[in-house]
Amino acid sequence: MWKPDRQNKKPLYEQIADHLEKRIAYGEFPPGSQLPSERRLAEQLGVNRSTVILAFAELRSMGIIESLTGSGTRVSRTKWGATPKHTPNWNRYAEGGSFLPNLPFLRKIRDALSQHPSLIDFASGELAADLSPLDEIATLMREHDYTSYLGYDNPQGYIPLRQALVDYLQKYRGIQATESSIMITSGSQQSLYLITQCLLSPGTL
Asked: How far apart are CA 158 and CA 132, in angstroms?
């Protein structure tokens, strides 16, 4: 848990404002998301509430956050001030329902595949059985005594993989990121779909 450095010459409220700005820029607090309350954040960081109030005022002056009476403090949807990039809330798009399976259509595809095995299945997203390295996987699992569940993991993707990507982006691309700002997709089609959902609105030409 990050906490401001009391030995640093920079005022505590500026350290907190900088830290929150980075988290917003990295997508941990997407546009429109609500920030912790002043009191709760002060308790987490071990500072006075007045310090958090000053930090929020700093971010508010740059248009990064906005406060509404009765609604708390949220990340601005339109003004991004000093933040370097607009990071979309990928989870909102992924959970929006567009990826729910169309069961009747999938049944038709399965029927067609059963009648014509030569057809290439682009619907299931699964690797063909003759291309799957089943023997190699089984050998590796036996050698490393791996017995964990191999089903679905975190919706944003395998956490160690996202952590490795954070290190890779920093080391080889000079890009600052956090594991919470990275989402692993099931393929290029899902990535393109999420990007278009973020950039386009109904009726956009």
From this structure: 20
pLDDT per position as a tens digit, 11-22 = 999 999 999 988
Per the listing, tokens 């505590």 go with 12
Rounded distance between C-alpha atoms, residue 168 and residue 176, angstroms: 10
Q: Is 182 helix (H, G, I), strand (E, B) or coil?
A: coil
Class of CATH domain 12-75: mainly alpha
Q: Which residue has the tokens 């982006």?
A: 169
pLDDT of amino acid 12? 93
What was the pLDDT predicted at 114?
80
Burial class (CB in 10 A: 0-12, 13-18, 19+), 171: exposed
Alpha carbons 45 and 86: distance in angstroms, whole number: 26
Residue ranges per structural domain of the chain: 12-75, 90-199
| φ, ψ of residue 67 in degrees (nearest 5) | -120, 135
pLDDT of residue 147: 63
Question: CA–CA separation, 15 vs 174, rounded Å?
Answer: 22
